[in-house]
Hints:
mainly alpha
Amino acid sequence: MFMKFFKDHLTQVFTRELEKIPAAIPADYLLNHTVCDFAETVRWWMEHDSYSPEDICGFFLSTTPF
């Protein structure tokens, strides 16, 4: 249940940011991919909490198209 609300919030946040980025793929696909990637990164981090916030940010940004 938490993940649904979290992803809904992330959708609002990332929608504003992704509008600024020209992409060769459909915007709704990019939005879905980014939201899921971020949410699952947070979930993964909860299971691997030995990484710092900076590490996790670096992991996410290295796999994000913008």
